[in-house]
Amino acid sequence: MDILLIPGLWLDASAWDDVVPAIEALGHRPVPVSLPLHASATLDDQVAAVLAAVDAASGEPMVVGHSAAATLAWLAADARPDRIARVAFVGGFPATDGRAYADFFEVRDGVMPFPGWEPFEGPDSADLDERARHDFAAAAIPVPAGVVQGVVRLTDERRFDVPVLVVCPEFTPAEAQEWIAAGDVPELAKVKHLDLVDLDSGHWPMFTRPAELARLLAP
């Protein structure tokens, strides 16, 4: 199976470098997706890049979105519900129709830069040492405003037929279930085939638990 890997905010396709060989060892074909990150890039541009990867895949791929990119993976399921075997969200949940994609932090000069580690203190970053934090921050790519402020548009109810896997790193499956039951994740409340699995890590398991993450993703 082709497993398409979509990086989250401030990351490019190289974020999956340690996961790729682990997925290959399990007999699958990992495909890290390169998202447009130039200053004028829009959410539509990034969705188009994901859909191009889906269309180029062999057979019916699995589409994996990390963090905010859970929404990109879900937009792919909305656009290609008959083409995708499964969607996986790693440490994130899809936004609802009409919401901004990822307008979480201050936008300056047309981009949303990495805000530093203060907003991520605690479970999110507990397993990242000082070197890992420094390297992440140094390599972080500011995300264009046209991406983070882009409006999510979901149009095909058949997306709820696509099986969904939620990998729960800095939170537990029980917590995720509580959020879904409380109405905090309305898209997942309508999914017909939903699995939640635990992963003992922070928010970026592709760096700290790549082999374990690969085993959870590879069916």
From TrEMBL:
GO terms for molecular function: hydrolase activity. The keyword Coiled coil does not apply. Residues 3-215 form the AB hydrolase-1 domain. Keywords: Hydrolase. Pfam families: Abhydrolase_6. The keyword Hydrolase applies. It comes from the Bacteria. Gene3D superfamilies: alpha/beta hydrolase (3.40.50.1820). This is Alpha/beta hydrolase.
